[in-house]
Amino acid sequence: MDASVDVERPNAPPRVVVMTGNEAAAEACKMARVQVVCFFPIGPSDEVGESLVQMMRRNEIDARVIDLENERSVVNAQIVAAQAGMRTSFATNSEGLVFAYQPLFWAAYGRVPIVVHVAHRAMEPPTTIVTDDHDTIIFRDVHWLQFYCENAQDVFDTTLQAYRVAEDHEVLLPAFVTYAGWEVSHASSPLTLPTQIAVDGYLGAYKPPPGTDVFEADLREVYSRRRMTVSKGAPEYMELRAKVDRALNVTAKEKVRAAHREFVRTFGRGYGGLAEAYRTDDAEVVLAVMGNVATVARETVDALRADGQRIGMLKLRTIRPFPREEARAACARAKVVLALDRNPVYLIYHELRSALYRQPDAPLVLGRVIALGGRNFTDLDMRDLALEAIEAARAGRGEELSWRFHVAKSTR
Predict the structure, then answer these.
(1) In sequence order, what DSSP letters do the residues of 140-199 get, joined into one string?
(2) How far is CA 147 from CA 136, 274, 291, in A?
(3) Potential cystine with 21: which of 115, 129, 176, 185 (Cβ 3.0-4.6 Å)?
């Protein structure tokens, strides 16, 4: 590895650079000291692996690339490398992601803490290369940690937090770090990079639980200890599933919150942990969003606040685990919550309906499907929907579910 990485001055200031979302993901992997880069190209995610290979050629990272014939093989290689005690990286999306369904499933229930970056791409048919977030939502019931990022800085910071949480011995679950294809993956924005010393102090090296490193233990003992094989009808299967569920939906919740608190103390910035509540303290209307939709929602909230409207935003950083407590707190005073889903299955709407069910004075929850397959979505579209929600709050009713096909011409 380039010696300059390790002899960095302890008091060196952070650097401000300009990077794409993919470059930010690669930079985070480099500073996390990833040792194995698993690779099979698919746009718009392939730039992550390409950037890491370029870093290797410049001796900026001490890692090995494993280039395989398909995504299933790549994820299998990633699992084995992680079981051998190495921190790994892989980036994919859409058809590439679902091609690897079986080993992705195995990673969760085998308790293997791999991290996969997903630059979202809409699922076929029809053939398209543009974005929505359906490709990872398909895996919402497979016990993966799922993080949704807004911009390049969010991608970088969340990657470090994802490794920290996934590798925690009380969690040991795989994680998706996701962001909008092209709109974030290839869009350049300012990014504050911390020092390598600070990252090392926050993250540290990956250390598998004692006795599970396949290079140090008898493989039969590893599988026996983890009870990966059970006889027909044996009760251990159900107990193992229950442990995974608790690790995701109970333990990981507090670990994400704790990792975020430590990140804020270390680097001086943060995003709220599991969710960001923006101007929701007295909000009668709350816009519930994920990913880069939050950028437009935040600006719309500010503009409508200037007009005297009591409106706020709930940005979901994770859908697994789902931030139930944060959602209830953010929506406690709302009359209407408008869930804006960039997927065709109303994920945010259904999750919020469940989280807010039987809460005192629960708000009316409305769902809108927006911006599928890269359909443009402007500041005026967001304003139209926000005003619709404000009117529903006044009337005490509104159309429960609908799709936004119209694209309003932006004022920008």
Answers:
(1) TTTT-EEEE-SSHHHHHHHHHHHHHHHHSTTT---EEEEEETTTTTS-EEEEEE--HHHH
(2) 10, 9, 9
(3) 185
Q: What is the pTM of this model?
A: 0.93
369 neighbors 353 (Cβ within 8 angstroms): no
| Confidence at residue 217, expressed as pLDDT on a 0 to 100 scale | 55
**How many Cα atoms occupy the beta-carbon half-sphere of 25 within 13 Å?**
37
CATH superfamily of 3-203: Thiamin diphosphate (ThDP)-binding fold, Pyr/PP domains (3.40.50.970)
Q: Matching CATH topology for 3-203 and 276-403?
A: yes
The answer to whether the beta carbons of residues 53 and 64 sit under 8 Å apart is no
Amino acid, res. 83 = Q
Residue in the structure block whose two tokens are 């209307």:
285
pLDDT tens by residue, 259-296: 999 999 999 999 999 999 999 999 999 999 999 999 99
pLDDT at 13: 85
Average pLDDT of each block of 10 consecutive residues along the chain (412 residues)? 50 90 98 97 97 97 95 97 96 98 96 98 95 97 98 98 98 98 97 97 94 60 53 75 97 98 97 96 98 98 98 98 98 98 98 96 97 95 98 97 90 58
Q: How far apart are CA 276 and CA 352, in angstroms?
A: 15
Q: Cα angle at 320 between 316 and 322, to 5 degrees?
A: 55
Closest to 28 in 3D by CA, of 89, 112, 80, 75? 89
How far is residue 175 from each of residues 64, 104, 162, 264, 342, measured CA to CA in Å?
21, 10, 7, 21, 20
Q: What is the pLDDT of residues 336-348, one digit of tens each?
A: 999 999 999 999 9
User: Please, what sign has the CA dihedral across residues 227, 229, 231, 233?
Assistant: positive
Q: List the structure tokens of 133.
A: 């977030």
In Å, the largest CA–CA distance within the chain is 67
Which amino acid type is present at position 244? V
